[in-house]
Every structure is written in C-alpha cells, then in structure tokens.
Design a protein that fits this description.
This protein is of the alpha+beta class and 350 residues long. It is built from four helices and 20 strands. Strand 16 and strand 17 form a beta hairpin. The two termini are 61 Å apart.
Length: 350
C-alpha cells in the first residue's frame, strides 16, 4: 500500500513538472510579426462606381461632292496625316479636286460681279445725294449689290466642299485609306476626330447616397491599363429623380484627361470623394479584430503584444481612421496578429 502511494505521489510531481516546463516553453516562444509605426496622415471616404468614358466632342467628316482625293501632310510631322495624330481646328486634312465642279461654281465671275455691283452702288449713292438719280434707282443698285454678295458667299460655300478641314481640336481616330488621286463618291467617309482632352461619363448611383453625393465633389478615376496613375474628375450634374426599377439616380462626371491617359470607350472605376480628413491616425482596415468588447488591434511595447480597444471614424476600402485608442508613434501589428494573444512575446521581422 505504501509503495502504491509513493508511486502515485511521484507521478504527480512528474506531471506537474512537465506542465511547468511546457508553460515556460510557451512563454518563451516569440511570434514573428510585422509592424507599422503610426503617423498622422490623410484619409478620404469614397462612393465607388463604374462607367464608360466618352469624349467631350467628336465629329465625322464626309465628302459632299464626287471628286479626286488627295490626303494632306501633317505640318507637325511632315508626313501624311495618320490615325492618332493630334490636329488643330482649321487644319487641312484632304483636298477634293474636280475641275468641272470648280468651273460650275463660278467663284471668280461672282467676285467680279460683286466688285462691279459695289462700284455701281457707290456711284448711285453719290448721284442720289446730288439729286441725279431717283430713290428707286438707288434701291435697284442696292438690291443688285446684295444679290452679288449672296452669289459670292454661296460660291465660297460650294468651294469649301473641296477642302476637308478639322472643325475642332482633337485626335484623328479614324482615317479610311484612299489612293492619292482616286475618285471618291459624295458621302464617302474622310476622317473621324475626337476631342478627349476633356471627357465625361454617366454613372448610376445607389439611392442611399442621394444626400451624400453633391456637384463639385472630386472623383478619382482609374483603369487597369494605367495602374500607376489616378486621373481627377468632378461631379458636374446629378439627377434628383430615383429610377423605380434600379433604385439608382443618374450622375455626370467630367474628366480632366490632359495627358490623354484615358481613351474614348474605356471602362473606368470612379471613386467619388464624399469626405476627407488631414493629419489623423490611419491604419489598414484588415488588421482590425472584432471582439465582444469592440474593435481591437495589437500594438507592440518592448517586444510584447498588447491588445488595444479602438474607435473608428472615416473609412474606405483599404484604410480606416482611428479616433480613439491609438497614439502617434506607437507600433501597430500589420501581419502575424492572427495568432497573438495579450502579453504574447513577439519577434519583429519588418
């Protein structure tokens, strides 16, 4: 009986000793973590939407007569115009030549008639002042002058059809190929020009934001083809009406595309800035843990983790403002926090 008791007591001491050793072993384990020093920075709150970017202006130029086609040179490059070339209003893109058409317009003849009619009108005005002609004769000369002027203006309009000129500043986005000197029919497409230095997009916004989104709010715009650049836009118009089927309202965004990074027809992600703050504590949103007592994060003090309850303010997809619970200069755990508990020893790896 005594032997059994001695053995049992010995076993108990062994078990207790093992437990103490395990606890000491656990206490000595350093959990690897990454940290970020808390600094004051800015944060913006967004409403996210998407849409298609359209050019501010676009125009398609076509031939209005049947004539021989001659593409002109770009004065900036010295070569014939090409798609992608920037073009200024008034620049000559192509000439259309048809001698028979030019003769039928009679521009020079009409200009001579105008000169004669103008001379005759001045003569009649001088004579009328001296009593040499009647008022009827003066009015007849005036009518002939106006008719001659109209004929010249009409002839100039007809001659303008032989010159394909850019009516707006923009970029040539389409330029059908024709052999130089080949005859093209009336209505043939010559060029398409788009002005996308400024662009716009229409968006559909959820009903819940109708009191949050307002005209003149800034918009950050991105596209997968320009991952390193953010283009700035502006909310210009908002519909006060809600679509009963989609529960959305319509908005217009103007885009400042000064570097031509966006192209017409691109699908664009738009973040409408509805609120922002400067010089506040901002941390990554994904490091916040939800506990019964509230939102918490881990901070590091002398290689020991401490769980801290926080209160938050503005937030967006990636970041959140901390209004209470953290101080500038403290180090917050950004990775490895999943396995931490209060007072855990840590090893900072970066």
């Amino acid at each position: 009986m005594k032997k059994i008791l001695i053995i049992s007591a010995t076993a108990i001491f062994v078990i207790i000793g093992c437990r103490n050793n395990n606890q000491n072993l656990t206490a000595d384990i350093e959990i690897p973590v990454s940290v970020q020093e808390i600094r004051l920075t800015s944060i913006k709150e967004f409403v996210n939407t998407t849409g298609t970017a359209f050019p501010k202006g676009e125009i398609e130029l076509s031939s209005k007569i049947t004539a021989s086609y001659y593409l002109e040179k770009n004065p900036q490059t010295g070569r014939l115009w090409q798609m992608g070339d920037k073009i200024k209003e008034g620049a000559l893109i192509a000439r259309l030549e048809d001698r028979e058409y030019v003769i039928s317009v009679k521009l020079e003849t009409n200009q001579l008639n105008l000169e004669l009619a103008e001379s005759e009108l001045k003569k009649q005005e001088s004579l009328y002042e001296k009593g040499g002609v009647t008022l009827k004769e003066l009015k007849t000369a005036s009518i002939e002058y106006e008719n001659a002027k109209t004929s010249v203006e009409n002839a100039k309009l007809q001659m303008a059809k032989t010159r394909i000129v850019a009516p707006i500043n923009g970029v040539i986005v389409d330029l059908p190929y024709y052999t130089q000197g080949t005859q093209i029919a009336s209505g043939s497409k010559i060029a398409k020009i788009m002005d996308y230095l400024t662009m716009y997009m229409e968006v559909q916004l959820p009903e819940k934001y109708i009191s949050v989104i307002k005209p003149s709010q800034n918009v950050n715009l991105t596209n997968y083809t320009i991952p390193g650049d953010t283009i700035i836009g502006l909310v210009t118009q908002l519909s006060p009406a809600i679509d009963a089927d989609t529960r959305t309202f319509k908005g217009n965004i103007q885009i400042n595309n000064r570097d031509y990074l966006l192209r017409p027809g691109m699908f664009v992600k738009a973040d409408i800035v509805t609120n922002n703050k400067d010089s506040v504590i901002v941390i990554p949103k994904n490091i916040i843990l939800s506990r019964q007592r509230g939102k918490t994060v881990f901070i590091i003090d002398r290689s020991v983790a401490a769980e801290r309850v926080i209160e938050t303010g503005l937030e967006n997809i990636s970041d959140v403002e901390v209004t209470r619970g953290l101080m500038k200069g403290e180090r917050v755990v950004t990775s490895g926090f999943e396995t931490l508990s209060n007072k855990s020893k840590v090893k900072i790896i970066k």
